[in-house]
Design a protein that fits this description.
The protein is mainly α. Helix content is 51%, strand content 0%.
Length: 59
């Protein structure tokens, strides 16, 4: 029988994928500030839409 039809043995994982010197998986300060600004803008837009619907509904 041929052993070519058998699945190959899986590769052994590396001993620890992360090194102590790896940087933290955090976005840079500028990106965090942009995310906060966009979140605030989204809330402001949602409130403006609700206010516009109330005003249009009363007229």
């Amino acid at each position: 029988m041929s052993t070519r039809t058998q699945a190959p043995t899986p590769a052994k994982p590396h001993a620890g994928d992360m090194l102590w010197s790896d940087p933290d998986n955090e976005p840079p300060e500028e990106l965090r500030e942009t995310q906060v600004m966009l979140r605030r803008l989204g809330i402001l837009m949602a409130l403006a839409m609700v206010l516009a619907m109330i005003v249009l509904g009363l007229t």
